[in-house]
Structures are given as structure tokens and as C-alpha cells.
Design a protein that fits this description.
The chain folds into three domains: 92 residues, Winged helix-like DNA-binding domain superfamily/Winged helix DNA-binding domain (Arc Repressor Mutant, subunit A, Orthogonal Bundle), CATH 1.10.10; 97 residues, Periplasmic binding protein-like II (D-Maltodextrin-Binding Protein, domain 2, 3-Layer(aba) Sandwich), CATH 3.40.190.10; 101 residues, 3-Layer(aba) Sandwich (D-Maltodextrin-Binding Protein, domain 2), CATH 3.40.190. With 305 residues, the chain is of the alpha/beta class.
């Protein structure tokens, strides 16, 4: 009878944890000490795992234990499996108590300042055991490489291995200041944008190619971009200073339009709407704290149009 058979009731997760600790320390004695067990038991656990896998995971000598080629290949997947199990176990426990732990979020700078900061303040009050970090940046963030739990992204999504949940929509408006319009040519049709100075936000993928619905059909119009910026608030500021026509998310200029600091243009020609997504890594279990935040922020942004 093999060791694996005699220890059939043993938790395989414990076998894997023992294997990982012995591999990390290079010693059954040191690994066992960190796990609070005897070296003999640690050796028995590893033997049981090897019998289960029908593979030799370690090369053993009187001085040191080193991973075999099979053990090296097994190590990375084993470590990931154990980490995922521990995270899943923590989440299951959180079903009966308040979610807790670290939460790292990234979002576009302007959208984050306008909506996420106040939402995050309220969220932290409701879930005091969640410790959140918010990184506001307009650069592309690799969630896995940068250790982020969640990203808020606006607009069309590039193909990726991430899961995405749409949490809202934002309309896009064309506007300019009364000062600019008082000295500019008439603007009653998208084709006339070619005669205007336009401020281009390079965060939009279309940049200086703006899309409108004309007579029920989608058409693209190339605009003359006197100024280009990579930030929606910067584009808004330049529009307020009379430097041209801007295409921008409506949430950036709601107050300006209401107070007539800016004037909406071409309203009868529908522009594309921007989808707002929450993205999280597909290879990681969706934790309770991430799920709670997605649900929380979705209620805040679902009526941005």
C-alpha cells in the first residue's frame, strides 16, 4: 500500500503547501519548522504527493533538497492553485461577514476625480475593513503586471484576457465657448467642422476623426486640430478659453453647459456613446471586495447620459 493510499483522507492542499514550503527553504527541516510540523511528517506529506502524481518532485541529498525538472514545472502551477484556494476560502468566509482586505483600482484621471473619489469615500465608510488604493492615470495599465484588482475603462475595449462588465454609458457632446462662436463661422452641420479650429483629446481613439449620425447613417468627419491634449479636463479648459470646438464626454461639461459657459453644438446629429466598463483579470477569482465595489460604483454611473 502506498503512502498516498494510507493518507487518502489527508487534505491535498496540505500536501501541496508542504511541498511549496520545502521547495522554498530547500530543506525538510526548515520547511517543517515554518509549518509547525516535524521533518518526518513533512517528508511523509511530500512522499504522499509524489505517489499521488506518480512523479519525483525533489532530488534528495544529505545536505539539501532540490527540485527535479518535474518539480520545477509543478511548482508554479501548484503555488498559483494554493493561492487561489486561499483567496477563495477567504471569500467564502466573507459571505457571512463584511468583506475585508486590500483593493487596488485604476481609472482614467478625469473620470476618477469627478466620480470615483466621492464614491470611494462613501464605499470606504460602508466597508471599513476594505483598504482601497486608487490610481488615477490615463496610461494603459496592465492589471496583472501592475497588481491591480480592477480597472474602470471608458470607450471601446481592446481584445484582452480580462473579464469586463459594462456598468454604464456616457454620452458625447460637441461644444464651444460663446467667445469662440461669436467670431467663428456658422456651425450647423458636421461637414462645417473643417472650417473650425478644434481641440482634440487624444484619449479618444478616433482623435481628429469624429463620428456623427447623419440622415440615419454613421459618417466620419475629419476635423482640423489646432490643439491636441491627452486629458478631457485639459480639452475642456481650452474650450472655455475660446480656443476651439471640443468633442468630450458630457459628464465633463454638464455644469458648463447649464451655466452657459459652453454651448452645445450639432445636437441633432447623434454622436457615439461611450461604454463604461469594470475590468478584472480573468485568471483570478473575483473576490467579494471587488464584487462589492463593482456593484457600488455601477449604481453611481448608470445614469451619466
Amino acid at each position: 500500500m502506498t503512502i498516498a493510499t494510507t493518507l487518502i483522507v489527508m487534505d491535498r492542499i496540505d500536501l501541496m503547501k508542504t511541498f511549496l514550503k520545502v521547495a522554498d527553504t530547500g530543506s525538510f527541516t526548515a520547511g517543517a519548522e515554518k509549518l509547525g510540523m516535524t521533518p518526518q511528517l513533512a517528508s511523509k506529506y511530500v512522499r504522499a504527493l509524489e505517489d499521488e502524481l506518480s512523479a519525483q518532485l525533489f532530488h534528495r541529498s544529505t545536505r539539501r533538497v532540490t527540485l527535479s525538472d518535474t518539480g520545477t514545472a509543478f511548482y508554479e502551477r501548484c503555488a498559483r492553485f494554493v493561492a487561489d484556494f486561499e483567496e477563495l476560502k477567504a471569500d467564502v468566509r466573507q459571505d457571512t461577514c463584511a468583506p475585508r482586505g486590500d483593493l487596488r483600482i485604476t481609472a482614467p484621471h478625469c473620470f476618477g476625480e469627478k466620480y470615483l473619489l466621492s464614491a470611494l469615500a462613501d464605499f470606504s465608510e460602508q466597508f471599513p475593513e476594505i483598504h482601497a488604493t486608487l490610481e488615477l492615470t490615463d496610461r494603459y495599465v496592465d492589471l496583472l503586471e501592475d497588481g491591480m484588482d480592477l480597472a474602470i475603462r471608458i470607450g471601446s475595449l481592446a481584445d484582452s484576457s480580462l473579464f469586463a462588465r459594462q456598468i454604464g454609458m456616457a454620452s458625447v457632446v460637441v461644444c464651444a465657448s460663446p467667445e469662440y462662436l461669436s467670431a467663428a463661422p456658422n456651425l450647423s452641420h458636421p461637414a462645417e467642422l473643417a472650417m473650425h479650429a478644434c481641440v482634440v483629446d487624444t484619449n479618444f481613439r478616433m482623435r481628429n476623426k469624429w463620428t456623427f449620425t447623419v440622415d440615419g447613417k454613421s459618417e466620419v468627419f475629419e476635423v482640423a486640430s489646432r490643439l491636441k491634449v491627452n486629458n478631457a479636463n485639459a480639452a475642456r479648459t481650452l474650450a472655455l478659453k475660446g480656443r476651439g470646438v471640443v468633442l468630450t464626454p458630457s459628464y465633463m461639461v454638464t455644469d458648463d453647459l447649464a451655466n452657459e459657459r459652453l454651448v452645445q453644438l450639432l445636437g441633432e446629429f447623434t454622436t457615439a456613446e461611450l461604454a463604461i466598463h469594470a475590468l478584472y483579470p480573468s485568471k483570478r477569482h473575483l473576490t467579494a471586495r471587488v464584487q462589492r465595489f463593482i456593484e457600488f460604483i455601477a449604481k453611481r454611473v448608470q445614469h451619466l447620459r
